[in-house]
Amino acid sequence: MPATALHCRICETQHALEAVGTCPRCFGPLDPVYDWDEVERTFTREAIAAGPSSIWRYAPLLPVAPAAESRLAPGLTPLVPAPRLADALGLGELWLKLDTANPTHSFKDRVVAVAAAKARELGLETLACSSTGNLANAVAARAAAEGMEAVVFCPFDLEPEKLLATAVYGATIYAVRGSYDHCSRLTVELSFELDWAFVNVTLRSYYAEGSKTLAYEIAEQLGWEAPDAVICPIASGALFSKIGQGFGELRRLGLVDAKPRLYGGQAEGCSPVATAFADGGRVQPVRPATVARSLAIGNPADGDFAVAAAHGTGGAIYAVAEGEVVENMSLLAETTGVFGETAPGVTVGALRRAVDAGELGESDRVVLLVTGDGLKTPEHVADRCRPVEIEPNADRVLERLAAA
Length: 404
Ligand SMILES: Cc1ncc(COP(=O)(O)O)c(C=O)c1O
Ligand SMILES: [Zn+2]
Description:
Elements: E1 3-8, E2 14-15, E3 30-34, H1 36-42, H2 45-49, E4 79-81, H3 83-89, E5 93-98, H4 108-121, E6 126-130, H5 134-146, E7 149-155, H6 160-167, E8 172-176, H7 180-191, E9 197-198, H8 204-209, H9 212-221, E10 229-233, H10 238-252, E11 261-267, H11 272-279, H12 303-313, E12 316-320, H13 322-336, H14 342-356, E13 365-370, H15 394-403
Parallel strand pairs: 5-13, 6-7, 6-9, 7-8, 10-11, 10-13, 11-12
Antiparallel strand pairs: 1-2, 1-3, 4-5
Helix pairs in contact: 3-13, 4-5, 5-6, 9-10, 10-12, 11-12, 13-14
The structure holds pyridoxal-5'-phosphate and zinc ion (ZN).
C-alpha cells in the first residue's frame, strides 16, 4: 500500500495516516500522499486488468489496504452508450456511468468501502456519518456486511425510502430536526467525544479518495482513453474535485493523454457552488430548499475546490431550475431505460445547459454520471403512474386499443 502520509491542501504540512479529518494546524483538508515510484511499478494496465472486479483493482492509489476477504465490494459498474438521449440533446457520443449498480445503488458505496477498511485497520467498531440519504444507506449496509455497528444522522424530513433503506440493515438512525448542515455540525462535535469511525468527518481523507475510482473506471472502460467531458452532480463538491484528481493521476502515470472538461450541476434551490463559479468569488453558505434532497448541502466542504476543478479543466458548474429536475428524470428514463434519482435529474440538466451554451456538441465524447437510483425517490415521478385498469379479457384490451 503506497500511501505514506496525509498532506494539507492549504498549509502543505504532512501528518500521520490516522483518523484526523482536518489539518491540526490550519483545519485545511488532508489528502493521502503516495509513493509514486511504487505506484508507477504497481498501477499498470496489466495489473489492474488482473485485479478484482471492484474498486480494489485500483488499490495502489487507495489509501488503505483492501480487506483480505472482500465483502459486498463496490465498483466496476457498467458504462453504457446512450444514443437516444444523445440524439435528444444534440450530442454525438454519450455514455452513462451506472453507479446505481453498486450494492446500495449509489456511488457512496465506493467512499464508504475505503473509509470502512481504514476503520477496521484502526480497530474501530462503529461506522457513523451525517447524510443526505445515500451515504446512510451505504454506511448501514457496509456495517452489516462487516459485522460493525452503524449510527447515522439524517435530516428528519428525508425521503422515507432513504430512511427505510438504512433501517433495514439494523442501523441506528437519528432523525435530526434540522438540515443536513446541522447533521454535519453535530457529527463534527460528536467526533471529539466518541470513539466511532465518522466516515465523512474523521475519516474524510480516506473516504473522499474512494470517489477517484470513478475516473479510473471510466478511463479503463473506454480503453484507457479520457472522454472529452464528464458531467457530475455536486453537493459537498468532494466527488467532483476527486474525479478531477483521478484523471490528473492517470495523466501523471501516462495512462491517459487528455484532461476531460468537468461540468457540474446543482439544483437552483441549493446552488452555492454554481453561484461561486458564476460570480468568481468564494462559496457562500445558503439555506437549501430543493427537490434534490441528496444534493442539499448548504455549506459544502469542498465547494471551492470544485470551482477550481471546473476552471482547471475548462469546464463549468451550472444551477439547474428546480422545475427541470423531475422532467430530466423522466427524459433519462424514457430515452435510456435508466431510472435515476433527483441527483441525475440535476446532472442531465447540467448537460443540457452545457449543450445550450455551445460548450458540448456533436464532436464530443461525453460521460454522464448516474450516481443514485430513482427507486429511492419515487414520489417525484408518481404522477406518471396511470395504469389502465381492465378485466382479464383480451377482447376488452382489443376494444380499448381500437378506441385509442
Ligand atoms: C446521488 C448523489 N449524487 C451526488 C452526490 C454528491 O456528492 P458530493 O457530496 O461528494 O458532492 C451525492 C451526495 O450525497 C449523492 O447522494
Ligand atoms: Zn494545514
